[in-house]
Amino acid sequence: MILTCTPNPALDVSYQVDRVVPGTTHRIRSVLERAGGKGFNVSRVLTQMGVPTLAVGPVGGILGDSLRADLIESGLPHELLPVTAATRMTVAVVAADPPDATMFNEPGGPMSEMDWARLRDLIAKHLRRASVLVCSGSLPPDAPEDAYAGFVKLAKDFGVPSVVDVGGPALRAAAAAGADILKPNAEELRSAVGVDDPLTGARELLALGASAVVVSLGADGSILATPTATWRAVGPRIDGNPTGAGDAAVAALADGLSRATPWPDRLRTAVSWSAAAVAAPVAGTIDEDVLAGVEVEITEYPTP
Amino acid sequence: MILTCTPNPALDVSYQVDRVVPGTTHRIRSVLERAGGKGFNVSRVLTQMGVPTLAVGPVGGILGDSLRADLIESGLPHELLPVTAATRMTVAVVAADPPDATMFNEPGGPMSEMDWARLRDLIAKHLRRASVLVCSGSLPPDAPEDAYAGFVKLAKDFGVPSVVDVGGPALRAAAAAGADILKPNAEELRSAVGVDDPLTGARELLALGASAVVVSLGADGSILATPTATWRAVGPRIDGNPTGAGDAAVAALADGLSRATPWPDRLRTAVSWSAAAVAAPVAGTIDEDVLAGVEVEITEYPTP
């Protein structure tokens, strides 16, 4: 079972409008509510692909109740931790003309030290039967920078490898804790190491202690760096919804890690699932027809 | 006691941002939640001005719980009716540069026939000790066009006069039911009678059966038309938050109706409270310092 942790989930509310015009009033045509969080999306993709998974995360307040209700309704295996901080909301205003999304993300409330300890206990409980731990998405406000690093070390204590998808100091700390795969996008990598070139940045995270770094570069594909090899993979250019593409890649990397597949295969699968996720309208799902036809080109780079 | 009815309330969520840029992601600096609805604002102003009031309206779902919690916390006298339709949300994104608000208004769910009957019963229960009934704000989707008209007639059965603030067919119907004061703004009046000139429109509502019509024209003041007289009132030009200015005017008109003050006095008070509401940062409150200094110019028009 692949255990995913979403420490800063949100109730994602999605509004359909014709067009967003600042300073005016918009009548909403349709409203959708959904449990939001990158770890949840990873578990959704794994479930769709037939890979056993369990999603954990903290929830609080009335929006936490709605989030829990959505996970139950969708049949996603989960164990949520009731905490005192109220679950936050994000509002995505999806416009038809031009087709884009305007996002309003609440920061959420800080989690108490005791709730962090309880979340750690919950992860420990499930690590006993986990093959991989995935830590995904932003941390709540005022979270310790080494929150993910602590979970990575905890997983190591149980002999469980970990995948971490985050940016900034939390990414550096996870590298230093010896995470097995880091999967930042270019911006998250830049916020962690302060360099623009993704390969240079990835190698810096390897030097800190990570076993492998996959950097997603959007339409430019992905690079994978280990201490001994470097590959670049480019998939097809697909129009669609890029939200959740990174989560599909994380799901593929975690699955590959749990099955000890060769690195180039993991990268190929990550880019394929990611492309098929762009083709699916909702984050956390992949278009299986697109997946069947995806071609990925892999190049090995010289490693310095 | 002035009884206010808000048939389509909302949980108003307010986000502070620097600037709204369509198609981008905004991190929210601060989040405010508040029970929203024009009738609630009328009751808030009346409470501030020392006039006894009670607010009624339907609530449902988890947002209904939040709305109720806010009314309890604010100490506003209320009796809310639990209904099956979930209370809607509105999101106001308040930008600093330029200073404006971008609104996203959920439509809400339709109320069942049985819940309409229960709301009517709740109004009837409180009409026994009410001096005025105020019906304020939009109706839920698929509401009967004569919903307010029915409440106006119900109030008449109890010998209680009514003030109605709405637009469209519901305003026409309320006029035909013999409402004592209608208080549309220019746009609501236009949507009801299809003419641009506010005085012509007001006289059409009088012809349908209303006893008096007050049309608020923003910075251009207000006009008051009765079958025998017409006045225009212009207050000071005040920069501020126009949301809730109309509700303050309705509160003043209801108070004047309950105390049987002369028409020009009612209009003067309506324009004064409205101006003082613009000066207050939050809808449903008036700035008492501004109120003390407000000067209103009243002109009587020849009545044809």
UniProtKB/TrEMBL annotation, chains A, B:
Does the keyword section mention Nucleotide-binding?
yes
**UniProt xrefs under SUPFAM superfamilies:** Ribokinase-like
Q: Which domain of life is it from?
A: Bacteria
Which keywords does UniProt give here? ATP-binding, Kinase, Nucleotide-binding, Transferase
Recorded GO cellular component terms are: cytosol
PROSITE patterns associated with the record: PFKB_KINASES_1, PFKB_KINASES_2
Q: Does the keyword Transferase apply?
A: yes
GO MF annotation: an example: ATP binding
InterPro entries per UniProt: Carboh/pur_kinase_PfkB_CS, PfkB_dom, Ribokinase-like, Tagatose/fructose_Pkinase
Q: Where is the Carbohydrate kinase PfkB domain?
A: 15-282
NCBIfam families, per this entry? Answer: 1-PFK
Family statement: Belongs to the carbohydrate kinase PfkB family.
Q: Quote the protein name from its UniProt record.
A: Sugar kinase
